[in-house]
Amino acid sequence: MTQSKAIKHEALPDPFSDEYSRTVFGFWVYLLTDFMMFATIFAVYAVLHKNTFGGPGPRELFDLPMVLNQTWILLVATFFVGLGGASAHRNSRRAAITYFVFSFLLGVIFLWLQGCDMARLIEQGATWKSNGFLSSYYTLIGTFDVHIIFGLLWTIVLIFPVMKRGLDIVSVRRLTCLRMFWQFLNIVWIFIFSVVYLIGVAE
User: Which residues are in the Heme-copper oxidase subunit III family profile domain (predicted)?
Assistant: First the structure.
């Protein structure tokens, strides 16, 4: 029993090892490039958000309670991702799977609410081609939603091997990167919620 536990303990990645550090650092570099892309899209939105060409603006179009619900769902999903990553580092397979599955389900709900919100705007005639404001808005939200879809697919790809074979050095390292990705998306969404929705409705 003791030998078995020792073997499992050795299977966990050492956060101070060179390979683990290189992987995490490399993923940080990727996130930095992603952040620069979002910053560019934010800048475009900042320039174009008042170009409504006489049409309805953020105050008339945005449903703040709906967006607030989306925000809470994403915050809770990211919280579960953090718990899942911590559980993976403790070699708690069942807890890691449970938390990541919860985060996946919440991510699906978030994406569904996003789809409902966009469908509502399109029904009102507020399409991507309507004006500069809506073009930049749909570009920003669409880019974010693509990242959410990627995160959901990535979760599926990583969780199924853990269900079958359990946790090992490679899977824990990959789950760490997945956790970082979701936390990055959470930070981006806080910026979107604050800059696009809150300030947009207040103006």
Answer: 25-201
